[in-house]
Design brief:
The structure holds 2 protein chains of 2 kinds. In chain A, about 75% of the residues lie in helices and about 0% in strands. Chain A is mainly alpha-helical. The radius of gyration of chain A is 20 Å and the shape is globular. Chain B is α+β, with helices and mostly antiparallel strands. Chain B has a single domain (about 40-295), classed as Sulfite Oxidase, Chain A, domain 2, CATH 3.90.420.10. Helices cover about 20% and strands about 20% of the residues of chain B. Chain B has 9 helices and 13 strands. In chain B, strands 1, 4, 5, 8, 9, 10, 12 and 13 form an 8-stranded mixed β-sheet that branches. Chain B has a 5-stranded mixed β-sheet with strand order 3-2-11-6-7. In chain B, a hairpin with a 4-residue loop joins strand 4 and strand 5. In chain B, helix 1 (about 15-30) packs across helix 2 (about 35-40). The interface of A and B includes residues 35, 37, 169 and 173 of A.
Chain lengths: ~200, ~300
């Protein structure tokens, strides 16, 4: 695994991998192979990929510490930005293909419908993280403040799952699976890595 | 020295795609003989009606691959996949309750009960999409008359066949089964309300509710219960499945109404399957002239 992460080509490879679902959806829309209700399909898929990439982003820190793959940090920003990229596509599908830029109706939706409120909240929590993902912004904010701001990712993930959960009509297996994954990723942060522990002195007795 | 075999073939030898595909189709239908044979079965002597004049029917492919039939799975593609081997023969329908002559009907008897008509109806799902479907069937009233309803019969309760062995995906749907639905007596006797046994001139595919389903075109699709095995004439308003699952979101009446939102989304517009732009949703799905009088004086916001 670590050998896969090392080469310079790993980053462009990951870039293409993250882009693949979007290309697949674009090709499917063009060829008409997304089924009977392609707009619904695009909405669902872009939403799901947002959650998947958020999970991948949040998996970086625990994997670095617990599995001992520190080089993973190279990919975290790209994963996070791709999560936001899919969130943008998802929001655009809603604003354009669902509401056709009826801003009054969109505003009503956000206020009146809890599942849309949660989705909008998740999106709003991700946007500043994408903006401040550059080196310049890290320097401007200072590492500490930058880190504190980027804790918003937990809110984005939680609100994203709630959004999905509240949208489902009755079969809640999929949103429950995402909830479980995020819960594991959150809890994993509380664990201390064993390898880093200082050597114990011999017991006295 | 071994000679290298030449595997290349001239393009002229390639089987034309259409032949290749039709061969596959033939093989497929041979493998799945009972289901496939039934799906292709034409219905004879169908009387055309004026319903749906000016509407373009949604393609057969869409009508039969994009379905809500939670017993066979909760995603739209599931029913077409999972209902393939569903057994629709032998099949009986028990009609009972507040009736002078309650009895059990065999499906083949039901098929001959009344002249079959083609009714091209708009179909509006509560989820915000719609279709136009050329149903084959006859008025529900024709069946109900057979058992001679008593005056105490105020409502009609319907029940879908349920067999967890044939419907293993039902365990994950989050709904209590068997699926039940209901109508008020006057809604049930209305000439627009039909029992459907087919669509596009053919026997109803399993995923569309074979062998017998209800179609109430001015109500959201989930009221049009599928694969019916029991019909009861009752005194009181019967329980209905989606209402049991979520009473705030799905009422007993569930008439299509652009002014009464589903709590989670607006019902003002709908996407007709196959269209890019959304259409305005019509009160009673555009059947107001025929059915609005049924609800005269009722607060449709309260009785959603």
């Amino acid at each position: 695994m670590r050998r896969l992460l090392a080469p310079r080509s790993a980053k462009p490879a990951l870039f293409l991998l993250c882009l693949a679902p979007a290309l697949w959806l674009a090709a499917g829309s063009w060829r008409g192979s997304l089924g009977v209700n392609p707009i619904e399909k695009v909405t669902l898929e872009t939403g799901q990929w947002t959650l998947r990439l958020l999970a991948a982003t949040l998996a970086v820190t625990p994997l670095r510490r617990l599995a001992g793959w520190p080089e993973l940090i190279r990919f975290r920003r790209m994963l996070g930005l791709f999560a936001f990229f899919y969130a943008c596509l998802h929001a655009l599908t809603y604003v354009w293909l669902d509401q056709f830029f009826d801003w009054a109706e969109i505003a009503r939706d956000i206020v009146k419908r809890p599942f849309i409120t949660a989705g909008a909240l998740s999106f709003a929590a991700m946007a500043p993280l994408a903006v401040t993902s550059t080196r310049g912004w890290i320097a401007r904010l200072g590492g500490r403040r930058w880190q504190r701001l980027h804790r918003l990712v937990y809110l984005a993930a939680a609100a994203g799952v709630v959004h999905f959960w509240w949208k489902v009509k009755s079969d809640i297996r999929e949103p429950a699976l995402y909830a479980l994954i995020f819960a594991v990723l959150f809890l994993a942060r509380l664990l201390r890595p064993r390898t880093a522990a200082p050597p114990q002195s011999a017991p006295l007795a | 020295m071994p000679r290298r075999q030449n595997y290349s073939l001239p393009y002229s030898l390639v089987t034309p795609k259409s032949v290749y595909l039709s061969r596959r189709k033939l093989l497929g239908s041979l493998l799945a003989l009972p289901g496939a044979a039934a799906a292709a079965q034409k219905l004879e002597n169908i009387r055309k009606t004026g319903y749906g004049r000016g509407e373009t029917p949604t393609p057969y492919e869409a009508v039969t691959t994009y379905n809500n039939f939670y017993e066979f799975g909760a995603s739209k593609e599931d029913p077409a996949r999972n209902a393939r081997s569903f057994r629709t023969r032998p099949w009986t329908v028990r009609v009972e309750g507040e009736a002078l002559k309650p009895r059990t009907f065999d499906i083949d008897e039901i098929l001959k009960l009344a002249p079959l008509e083609e009714r091209i109806y708009r179909f509006r799902c509560v989820e915000g999409w719609s279709m136009v479907i050329p149903w084959i069937g006859f008025p529900l009233a024709e069946l109900l008359k057979q058992v001679e309803p008593k005056s105490s019969a105020q409502f009609v309760a319907f029940e879908t066949y349920f067999d967890p062995k044939q419907m293993p995906q039902s365990a994950w749907s989050g709904l209590p089964f068997p699926y039940v639905e209901g109508l008020r007596m006057d809604e049930a006797m209305h000439p627009l309300t039909i029992l459907s046994v087919g669509l596009y001139g053919e026997v109803l595919p399993n995923q569309n509710g074979a062998p017998l389903r209800l179609v109430v075109p001015w109500k959201y699709g989930f009221k049009s219960i599928k694969s019916i095995v029991r019909i009861r004439l009752v005194k009181n308003q019967p329980p209905t499945t989606w209402n049991l699952a979520n009473p705030r979101e799905y009422g007993f009446y569930s008439n299509v109404n652009p002014d009464v939102d589903h709590p989670r989304w607006s019902q003002k517009k709908e996407r007709r399957i196959g269209e890019f732009f959304k259409r305005d949703t019509l009160l009673f799905n555009g059947y107001g002239n025929e059915v609005a009088s049924l609800y005269a004086g009722m607060d449709l916001r309260k009785h959603y």
